[in-house]
Amino acid sequence: MNIKSLLKSSALAAAAGAMVMIAVPAEAAPDRARNVSREEGNRHGNFRAHQSRSQNVQRQQSRRGNDRRAEARQQRQSYRNQARQAQRRQSRNWGDARANAIQRQRTQNVQRRNWSGRTENRNQGNWRQYQRNRTYADQNRNRSYTDRHRTERRDYRNNRRDHRADRRDYRNDHRYAYRNNNYRRWNHDWRNDRRYNWSHYRRSHRNVYRVGRYYAPYSGYSYSRIGIGFFLNSMFYGQNYWIGDPGYYRLPPVYGPYRWVRYYDDVLLVNIYSGEVVDVIYDFFW
Question: Residue 21: is its pLDDT beyond 50?
Answer without folding.
Answer: no
